[in-house]
Sequence to fold (541 residues):
Amino acid sequence: MDSAAELSFREFVAARSPALMRLAYLLTAGDQHAAEDLVQSSLVRALGRWEKVGDPEAYVKRVMYHQHVSLWRRAWRRHETTVADLPEKGADDSTRTIELRLALREALATLTRRQRTMLVLRYYEDLPEQEIARLMGCSIGTVRSTTHRSLARLRSADLRELIG
Amino acid sequence: MNEDTLIKEGLREWAEEVRVPADLAGRALRARRRRLFGFAGPGVVLVAAAVTAVVTLLPGASPERTIVAERPRAAAAPADVRTDTENDPPVNLIAAGPWAVGSYYTTRWVSTDRGTETLRYDWSVYDRGKGRYVRTPYQWVDVLPGMGLAAVLVGDLPSQGLGLVDLETMMYTRWWDLDEAAGSVFWSPDGSKLVLTTYSGPPDEKVSVSRSRTGFYVIDPAGGTMAWRRLPPDPDGVGGREDLRWDDDGVRLWAQKTTGGGRWLYDAEGGHLGADDDPRRMNQAGVSPDGRLRAGPAGLPTEVTDVETGEVVGRQQTLQLWAWVDDDHLIGLGCARACDNEFDNTLVMVSVDGKETTRLASYRDARTSWRPVLVRR
Fold:
């Protein structure tokens, strides 16, 4: 990598690291350290072919999805989501919204990486099923069934009751 | 709120809670270099070169780097003159005789996440492969005489990564991870060694943070040796830069005294060798290659005198005389128009008699614009 490429890499990271970190944070279910590791290892991968990559952000994100799902052997820190104990139900609307979100976090943390990645792609990155299938290297049917199962699991984790 | 909206908003809010580390790019680059080079790195052969220009830093915390040129030694160097008066900052090589602008830099104050301000450097070097100056991502650059290689500090200063960059390919040929973070790096006069001054915090940050010089590394890239020595700051220092540079003998190290002028001298182990007055003065070309003439101090006009008689042999409409091109010409700093604004200046080549002046680069505001660093080419 020459210095011009390094400069463009640094500029890219400076501009896009908040977005990449946010995505990694969700993929790792709120684990700050694991999110940093994921972004760093994906950036290292991207560096290897930096000058050939047309859309760096799309490339780095794709590496992130794949790294996150495929690196199951790696000794990641066990994610620990810091969610408060759920308060008693029956509070006012704003409390109720907070309850819902905390429940959602807990529920997301119980999903498999693959399930969580698909939900993040679908609901956070707002990608169509076809694009998710392409990124994850599976069929649209698999995307649908995985999303379906993930949502079912979320619902079973108290969410249904909370959504009421 | 329906389920889709709940999930979307929940995810977005959760994502906002992440902390974004400051140096992700640097981390990734260091990790990749470790992977590529390990600790040993591929060998590199350094060509010893006769060096007579020393890049120095003004005393105190000033970031200004200026040129101190000494008497050139015999060397087969190109004799042509290359100018770029069209581009500001320059794109095409600027050179006269044995000297070239090997690099130039600009500085700007940027806010830190500590609520302070620090200097950010933007360095450009002459890329021999592309045949033009290119901007670099490095926070410190020192070009090896001969312009084939540059020592660079990577990431925020003080930096934990030193690289050698091949100026033909702009690729790293060597890499060192630094346990002690460095704020500057300089080649020794013969190009065989490097000295890096290490600091406990950002050396250019505007006060309010506690940081000071911690010591220095001496690295011999060809010999594969690297040693760090503790060297506390000048007792009179105020916690700013106290960079070490090589003396002309290539053995001793020196740092500008914080107060009172002159310099402290050290051996390569960090042993104190006392103090002396800096034998060179800032921005002075010194004695001509044939030893007959001496370039005078800054002024308008500047003067060149006969070494033996002290007689003034020529006056030039320049602000400073930086380096001898040959026995009859110098590189200096000339100002625009009738010098109504001394900061509106640029590099010129001027004859000793002051009758010929060749502008080498575009005029610029010397306080805020690019600052050239001369090197033997």
